Amino acid sequence: MKNKKRIGFRSMAFMILGIVIFTSCVEEPLEDNTRMVGPTEASIEDLKVSEFFEWKTTQEITVIIEGLPVDVGVNRKLALLTTSGDEIFAGSHKMHEDFEMTFDLPQGINSLTMKYGAIEKNADVMGKSVSFDFLTELVDDIEP
Amino acid sequence: MKKLIIFSYMMGLMAFQSYAQNAVENDAELGSRENYFALCWSMGAITASDSKSTLINGDYSFRTNQLTNSSNDATWMKSPWIIMEKGEISFVTRLDGSAGGNRGIIIQYIPFDPKDEMYGEGKEVEFDTFDFPNPINKQTTVHKVTAAVPEELIGKTVKIFLSFVGTGGTARAGLDDLSIPGKYVSDPSSNCFPKVAIKDTDGDGVADNEDDYPEDKFRAYNNYLTPNGFGTLMFEDLWPAKGDYDFNDLVVDYMINRVTNAEGDVLEVVIDILPRAAGAGYSNGFGIEFTGISPTRIEKVEGTKISSGSIHEFMSNGLEEGNEHATIIAFDKVANVLKHPGGGAVGINTDPKFPLQSGEKMRITMHIRPSIITTRRREEPIRLSDLTMEKFNPFLIVNQKRSVEVHLPGKLPTAHADKSLFGTKEDNSNGDKFSYYKGKDNGLPWGLNVTESIPYMVNKVDITQGYNMFYKWAASGGEAYPDWYLEKGGYRENKVLLNAK
Lengths: 144, 501
Description:
Chain A is of the alpha+beta class.
């Protein structure tokens, strides 16, 4: 009976030790890693940043629009907007011409809207660019 | 592919829509129904195909599904809206050699009817037909089909509507080289409705409802550098010595509108400035360099606040003298635009014990001179790409010493800066473009630019105490919390922030 108790105590000690060892090997997510420098612990005196850090609160996003393959004689306002409706570009654009321009946009923008007359399209930022065209969606009515 | 198509078009090898010759043509060589739909053609159960069994000319012809329906809306093609002219509608067609009973093509027109809000289409009218000769089996002969434009259609806006019909068997039809005499008048940007005359009061080619300046023939569009309103600039003024990182020695909100004409040339730059705080004992000034813009390109600058007896010298156009790039001195002394509260306050609007002062809203307009193009000289117009955030170089002028400038990190000084100060005390500027106005030991800046208007720090409290995620953002090189400045849960400590406006 006495020996059984001792074995049980040792087993429990090994289990606790094992849990401590194994859990300490689990990588914490980024959110948890960065918690160590929260507002109360962080001091500007400790802060050191890369010499290449640009301190920008914007991101460069290139908008690419593929024009129609043929000149249809349409030249009107092209507007590019954030999803919250803020206009980032306005200018006349010929519908058959391609468009490419790079914008400094607030961080966190991950999609944009193109408006051209009655055409309104949304597209996601892929990498550092967003692509649009003037093509319309088709109904698949073609036999193989 | 597109270049090839355009090249082919220009070489006359492919004539898709030739408006100048007043014929609307379609030879399927764009190779994709999507392209044709975008150009206001429409079709049902027909595709552009390179299948040899129905190919007629070039790399593509149109190819129908199996024609086993005598209804005119089973397999069809509609042209864009066309103002018809006298002549013949023509096309070539063939079958694919499969079994079949009868096959034919009905040639119709659709009048424009504004009451149909979806497509503008009235009831179709048949005016000609083509029947493939029997027997259909094994038939692959190419037939040229023509149909005279009915007199009553000339000058009318219609769509030409071809229906492919048949009974029995499995034969399909191909179609190519369709030519319709008339002028293309569809507008793909307006649901393909016929083009209408735009109201353009100022005659600049931009419709009034799309023109930010409908009664100004020069100006057409606003283009804001910070699309969601004001941004905030915050400076420390002890450079090249270390500051206290409260970034409130000068706080100004800014909004920059690059006004363009219908061609996209920038005509003027309208800079709205709202001085908000000056937590300094110094009498600082504020300027903006537009990097890459030659001072000679500026016609005049209006709206700056300059003291008499200023330390600055100015060109006749209002820019500061002696700079390589166009440089505006918005105000030479912060006292010109922000009133001191008195009562022993060290600064303005940085100590919550003192009443907040309203800054004087400023609007500075930098007019750009039209470009000069002669046989000996060519100036390119200034475009939006010449006035990006990268080219925006605002700076603080320290305590009426013109040679001491504080710029945003990584920005270059103007020609007036005392170069001997670089690399001294805490400054790391060493000639490398990344090094300017960054701390020698810690890489920290003396200025920040946030593209939204945000509250700033109370005096002597460093920015990490007010913006909880700033430290993580900076320490991670911008990877973590790029939105550190936003008003999100846990992001701000409002008790140490001020928001004078």
